[in-house]
Amino acid sequence: MVSLQGNKVKLRALEKEDLDLLFELENNPSVWEISGTITPYSRDVLKLYLDNAHRDIYDVKQLRLVICTLNNESLGLIDLFDFDPKNKRAGIGVLINDKGDRNKGIGTESLEILCKYAFKTLQLKQLYANILEENERSIHLFKKLGFELVGTKKNWIFSEGVFKNELLFQKIFY
Question: 53 near 13, Cβ under 8 Å?
Answer without folding.
Answer: yes
